[in-house]
């Protein structure tokens, strides 16, 4: 027997199977591209956090890898949490989303009572060696509740002002709790995501634009009547007017971008991270990345995040097409959230937007943010997984409906069992293919 016989036999078996049953579809149950991109961003984040945090970690704790080790531990917890969430069916989130909203409110109240203050902001709850920032899970919990609300009250939202206003009242409560911390950036992210989702759902345009107008007026009011926010805006418009005062952070960030040029100074060779640029490993990590990896590095990171956003929106479209509105709205909200938070973080470090304390998704240092973002990606994977499984089950049900009762075979007439006859048919087919391969 020639060495090519097994390969030819396998080829002919594939052809026979295709003729009888159609082409076989080899599809993974999970979106491998989404998994790889999320892990690539998280890995790159660990590397950049290590590089950016070494000088300040060495000065504060005597260990240059202090923040790197903590971020690595948070990354492991984030991956484990994502693995757990990946096993939870979306029907669970559809049922408990009102309780998630209640949990978000309780956490935001708790941080005001027992939270730790840093630089005038009370945003963190310390639990032993861990530090929890309740605003991060509050965003995901609110978006989950909003998706469930839009499913339950779709007609109200699209037909009258009452249904449109109700989720905004809930947002107003959360926004007030966030502004008491104060955390203006998270409130803006939640408002933008809420309005984007209401627009995609099909709310009436006059209602949509009216609320957007009122929201913009509220944002302007909060900026004008709060001195530190006003200073951020004025320094953002002309940071070089006071380069060693209100514009110091932004001017140092811009110098990091300038030094990076096209291909950067090389990993670990940032000059601005030597405590010239504060918060280099968290809010301004993109500036350090730009200095060390250059424009190509920035473009690569933005391209990977764009991939996540586009996949989230496509999953949302697919879910709505498959009559799964809760999953579709949740995927939409995650996509809008990722895109807007990335735009604010990068825009602030590049001088395009006023400085805000928002992390770069999956990149910046911050355990709670990293865990919540990984869980959000796991939810996207779960939605996509259930859509794929539903597709396979639908094909199976369709085949069963088309299947007709088999006529009584000669095997049954002769007293033979149908299973025996089918096995003999398969064995004869294999022998026929093998003989053909030998003759070739």
Give a verbal description of the structure.
With 440 residues, this protein is mainly α. Helices cover 73% and strands 3% of the residues. Helix 2 (32-61) runs antiparallel to helix 14. The model is unreliable at 406-413 (pLDDT under 50).
Strand-helix topology:
Elements (H helix, E strand, L loop, with lengths): L4 H17 L10 H30 L4 H21 L3 H25 L1 E3 L2 E7 L2 E3 L2 H18 L1 H6 L1 H19 L4 H18 L3 H20 L2 H11 L10 H13 L24 H37 L3 H25 L17 H36 L7 H4 L4 H22 L1
Helix pairs in contact: 1-16, 2-3, 2-12, 2-14, 3-14, 4-5, 4-7, 5-8, 5-13, 7-8, 8-9, 8-13, 11-12, 12-13, 12-14, 13-14
Instruction: State the helical fraction.
Output: over 70%
Distance between the termini: 10 Å
Protein structure class: mainly alpha
Q: Per DSSP, what share of the residues sits in E-state strands of 2 or more residues?
A: under 5%
Low-pLDDT runs of 5+ residues are 406-413
Sketch the topology as an H/E string, one letter per element. HHHHEEEHHHHHHHHHHHH
Task: State the helix count.
Answer: 16
Average predicted local confidence, pLDDT: 81
The Cα radius of gyration reads 28 Å
Number of strands: 3
Indicate the overall shape.
Answer: globular
Sheet with most strands = 3 strands, antiparallel
Largest sheet strand order: 1-2-3
